[in-house]
Amino acid sequence: MIPGTFATLTIDEQVDYGYFLTDGKDRVLLHNNEVIGEVEEGEKVEVFFGVDAQDRLYATMKKPLITQDTYGWVEVVDVVEDMGAFVDIGLSKDGLVAKDHLPFLREVWPNVGDKLYCTLKVSKNGRFFVRLATEEIVEPFFKNADRALFNKEITGTVYRMIVAGSFILTEEGYKGFIHSSQREVEPRLGETVTGRVIDVKEDGTINVSLLPRKHEAQGSDAERIYAYMQERNGAMPFTDKSDPDDIKERFNLSKGAFKRALGLLMKNNRVYQKDGWTYFKEEENNQ
């Protein structure tokens, strides 16, 4: 009877708080809280072994979602600053992904509800820990992407992060990479994101962008500029001739993006330019 393993045992004795099981030599407690369905003395049951807070071996009929030999997605149920992320592993006690195994930046730690691709580890004293799957473990599960996916929308979950960007595993089983230049905000570890396939590589992996398509970006940039003008009573000292550094500092946009957004506003007859300023169209008669 070893923590983290399965065995089929015989129900030897019923007590008020549960059942004692035996393999013919040793006995272990199956607490009432760990029983599934109805059982009776003499019946054989499959159980999983763990240790409690007092380091005592116990049995459970609950099936863990992950084991020492298997990997899977487990949901984050709590995040504790000085400990890490607790995940639902299918047992009465949640598993812990220690903070040392989470990203250095706290803002990209998983949130409750996010999912991590993990396996179960058992310490020498029988305690359970949860570890993120390594690239070598995940690699064999990937499917090769077809070039028909190019420019298509795709959804995946972040399973690994490096300085250059984030790796995702998509719902279809494809491996994707989101370069830091292809996002406005860095996604969390375990976060599910939806983006656009911008490249299908020869090795069957894909590159994904979380940035809006150009026409969508134009619209959102235009609304941001328009909102800024509203704060200034319908006028601003910026036009498509303004200095790129000034535009970058004020709007965090390149001059090209600013010109496209401003052009969209003028095309829609919402603003006009005059003497180095841009005005709301309805203000034109007042100038």
TrEMBL record:
| Residues of the S1 motif domain | 151-211
Q: Which InterPro entries match?
A: CvfB_fam, CvfB_S1_2nd, CvfB_S1_3rd, CvfB_S1_st, CvfB_WH, NA-bd_OB-fold, S1_domain, WH-like_DNA-bd_sf
In terms of superkingdom, the source organism counts as: Bacteria
* Membrane-spanning parts: none
Pfam families per the UniProt record, alphabetical: CvfB_1st, CvfB_2nd, S1_2, WHD_CvfB
Q: Which SMART domains match?
A: S1
UniProt xrefs under PANTHER family = CONSERVED VIRULENCE FACTOR B (PTHR37296)
Q: Which family does it belong to?
A: Belongs to the CvfB family.
The protein here is known as: S1 RNA-binding domain-containing protein
Q: Which species expresses this protein natively?
A: Metabacillus endolithicus
